[in-house]
Design a protein that fits this description.
By secondary structure, the chain is of the alpha/beta class. The chain has helices spanning about 15-20, 30-40, 75-80, 95-110, 120-125, 170-180, 200-210, 290-305, and strands spanning about 1-10, 45-50, 50, 70, 85, 115, 120, 130-135, 135-145, 160, 185-190, 220, 230, 235, 240, 255-265, 265-280, 280-285, 310, 315-320. Strand 13 and strand 14 (about 235) form a beta hairpin.
Length: about 325
């Protein structure tokens, strides 16, 4: 018994994307051929890098440059993509405060989309969620190594904060262990490291090595806004998926990947990575020189980590076994 899980990185539906949503239907934000690829998967999990609310004020931090809040219609974009669950363990879940985070949880729940990595208190923020595809059961744990100010506490809404610079906290290990009980596979989705780096920073590499020794079937990272390579069961960074961000002409955060991971009870079996082109507030499959750039970048990144990846048609493939 096996399933295929679609994974996507930073998905920001506020600011310019929110303005676009006021003018066009949700389906206009993602190309039909991309939706078709996403729906090949049995489950779809992504990092939602914004709150969904019409309430709240910007988080009172004079050093914070960006605040992302999406309208309620944002859940329709996720539903159109077939998203089953999102992680909110990131540095934008509380951009507009606790009430906006609670609204986000309510809007997602109303759309039948599970949320992990944030909650009304620390216990629920850290609690695994369980998804099912037929008889296959997959558990998901969410965590973020920044910002500590967003950490949920006793009776305080927030994110599942994990200070990975000091090692993998015991609660993360416990959550993975709890998740693995009774599950056929366990996914850890973790927001780690700084923006706009083309390779994992040292504390992320150290954490990945520790996490590889836990019962997690697959570790999927995000935060850098550009995709990284794969080492063992760790996808170091999924890159960006949908946003209105300024484009770095060298690091090319406007080029990304949709990841399709096939898992069974023994672990990960196969990974297919599909090149993407992120236009302003719209994402489609990459073509021509854009797709070629993604292929070169991914193959080089994997080779640098000692992982063999290959081109198969328009997809990049890794076989774990």
């Amino acid at each position: 018994m096996e399933i295929t899980v679609a994974l996507a990185g930073d998905t920001m539906l506020g600011r310019g994307v929110a303005e676009r949503l006021a003018e066009v239907p949700p389906a206009a934000l993602v190309a039909p051929d991309l939706v078709e690829v996403a729906r090949e998967a049995d489950l779809f999990v992504l990092n939602l890098e914004c709150c969904i609310s019409e309430r709240g004020l910007p988080w009172p931090d004079p050093g914070k440059p960006f605040f992302f809040r999406a309208p309620p219609a944002a859940v329709d974009v996720l539903a159109h993509l077939g998203v089953d669950a999102v992680t909110l363990a990131n540095n934008h879940a509380l951009d507009f405060g606790e009430d906006a985070l609670l609204d986000t949880l309510a809007f997602l729940d109303g759309a039948g989309i599970a949320a992990v990595g944030a909650g009304p208190d620390a216990d629920r923020a850290r609690r695994p969620i369980r998804l099912a595809a037929g008889e296959f059961r997959m558990a998901v744990v969410g965590a973020s190594d920044h910002p500590s100010q967003f950490a949920a506490g006793p009776g305080r809404p927030g994110i599942a904060f994990a200070d990975l610079r000091s090692g993998v906290p015991s609660w993360v290990r416990s959550a993975i262990g709890e998740a693995a009980e009774g599950a056929d596979a366990t996914l850890l989705t973790v927001h780690w490291g700084p923006n706009m780096v083309t390779d994992p920073v040292p504390h992320v590499r150290r954490a990945a090595e520790e996490l590889s020794r836990t019962p997690a079937t697959l570790v999927a990272g995000h935060s850098a806004h550009v995709f990284h390579g794969v080492s063992g069961p760790v996808l170091f960074d999924l890159g960006d998926f949908l946003d209105d961000y300024a484009v770095d002409p060298v690091r090319r955060n406007d080029l990304g990947l949709l990841w399709l991971a096939t898992l069974d009870e023994r672990g990960p079996r196969r990974l297919e990575a599909v090149p993407l082109r992120l236009e302003y507030c719209r994402t489609r499959l990459a073509e021509g020189p854009d797709a070629a750039w993604v292929r070169r970048r991914f193959l080089d990144a994997c080779t640098g980590m000692g992982t063999e990846a290959a081109e198969e048609g328009d997809r990049l493939v890794i076989r774990w076994r």
